Structure formats: C-alpha cells, structure tokens
Amino acid sequence: MAYKRDLGADELSECVQDFYQNLSDRLHTHFKGSSERVESVMDEVERYMMTRLYEEVFCPETTDDEKKDLAIQKRIRALHWVTIEMLCVPVDEEIPEVSDNVVKAITDVIEMDSKRVPRDKLTCITRCSKHIFNAINTTKKEAASADDFLPTLIYIVLKANPPRLQSNIQYITRFCNPSRLMSGEDGYYFTNLCCAVAFIEKLDGQSLNLSVEEFELYMSGQVSPQRPQAATSPACSAAFSQMNESLDLLTGLGVRQERVMEGARRLESDLIDWRDGVEHKVQDVLERFPLEMHPAASPTASSAIDADNVENDHLPSPLQPQLFAG
C-alpha cells in the first residue's frame, strides 16, 4: 500500500479486499475449517493494517467524501424541526430509562468517528442499535420489530448529526473485513444505518405526512411545528407558548444570519475579484508603457552647464569693470 498512494479509493479498497480474501483462504486451509480461529486472526490483521493506513485511506482527496459529509450535515441541520411524532417513533422520552437509552445511542453513533478500525466503528453502530431496541422495548413493554427500529434510528441520526457520517460509511464499506458486512448483527445494523442516511437525503413532505407548502415553510425556518403538550396549568401554558415564540424567533434569526453570512462571503469574493482585476490592469499598463529611469544629475552639473559647448574657446574674454574719474 505504501507504493500505491497514487491510486484511487476504489483501487485501494480492491487491494485490501483481495488481501483479506487471499489471507482468509490460506487461514482456512491452515486451521482446517475452524471459522472462529480464522475470524479471530482476521480481526487482528484488520486492526493492525487499518490502524497503520487510516491517515492515508480515510476520506482521501481523490474522492468527494468530504463534500458529501458537508452536504448531509447541512441537510440534518435543516431538518432540526422534525419531531418524534412525524417519524412515528415508538419511543417515550418522558420515561427516564428510555431517555437514558436515547442519550447513549446518540453518544455511540457520534463516537464512531473517533475510531480508526472499521470493526470498532461497526461496534459503535451495534451498541447504538441495541440502545435503540432497549428504548423501544421499555416504551412498548414488548419486543421491538424492524418497523419500529428504522424510524427510531433515523430519529437518532437526526438528533446526533454525527461528524463525517458519509466518510465513515464509505471507510467501513471499502476496508472492513467483508465477512462482517455480509453476515451477523454488525452487517444488519450497518445496512440499516445506510438506509437511514438515504432516507434523510430524500426526505420530503410526503414522507412526514406534510403538504409541500408546510414542508418548505419548515425547511426555510419561517415557522416551527407545534409540538403536542400535555394538560398543564395556565401559567405553564403561557410559559410554553412564550418558549415556542422564542424558538420561532431564534429560528428566524438563524436564517437571517445565514443570509448575512452568505452576503458577506459574496462581498469578500467580489473584493478579491476587484483587487485581482486592478492588479491585472496595472500590470498590463506597465507592460505597454514601461517606466524609463534616468540617472540623477551630478552635483557639478550646474557649474558645468556649458561643458559640452565646443564654441567656448572662441568667445571673447569677459568684460572687466572700469572706474571713471569724476
């Protein structure tokens, strides 16, 4: 790999996957079909290899992974208004145990970015998923189904907005031991995470049972959805109402700030273009009309003003003052 840094991400991935496959075949022959021992060795090989190669193959410059990271991060920020009711998530965060599992799930999916080995990243996803199942089971008081799990995972991803999400997914896909992705709970939970990200990227009003107009208003930040409230005293109702108004105001201010920042960025770009244009014009004028520098006059130049006059020798002698007697 040290001599193949000029290759693209897909070629590097193919190189690693070929090595995994060849080594796995040789290990199966050596251990005579002992899958557990083979998997144990392969896990350590992956850990050693990818720890050494991480800096060079994670989010390489030859890909658009970083661009996708920024796009999904911006998309999730724009969907901050999506409520748990809109996604039909069967989780009651008012229950302390459920709330605790939700927080742990968010922490796990964020922690994924800090790991270097693909298997460790998968472990974070698996832990996150198990906390989600615990939250659903506690809320429903019965076993959770796959139909309950995916909406809740989408909700967790929206709440967490994990850093470098697309880069981590691509890194796992390219360099993880394929036996883990194609079977077992790690592969199942990873597939669901990919589905959740794809859903978020294509999320529209119809997905949330909203009209196109409502969806656009929420996305633009002009209004915020009213969250359902339990029966409370008039004082609490007034406080909640004031809080919602404040949230709407903050959302509007955030949109205005984004517009101001966009205007500032455009102004900065215009100023840079103007400066470059002026420099180009000045350089063009200097090339067309170069400056001619003349040497400075010597200190004796004024006293020898007629030094080059060849007729000086033929001039009469200067007049001498004469005195006349009165």
Automatic annotation (TrEMBL):
The biological processes this protein is annotated with in GO are:
vesicle-mediated transport
Any Pfam family from its record, for instance, is VPS9
Q: Report the domain of life of the source organism.
A: Eukaryota
In Swiss-Prot or TrEMBL terms, this protein is called Rab5 GDP/GTP exchange factor-like isoform X3
Q: Which GO terms describe its cellular component?
A: cytosol; endocytic vesicle
What SUPFAM superfamilies does this protein map onto? VPS9 domain
Domain VPS9: from-to ranges: 66-209
Enumerate the GO terms in the molecular function aspect.
Answer: guanyl-nucleotide exchange factor activity; small GTPase binding
InterPro entries, per database record = DUF5601 (IPR041545), VPS9 (IPR003123), Vps9-like (IPR045046), VPS9_dom_sf (IPR037191)
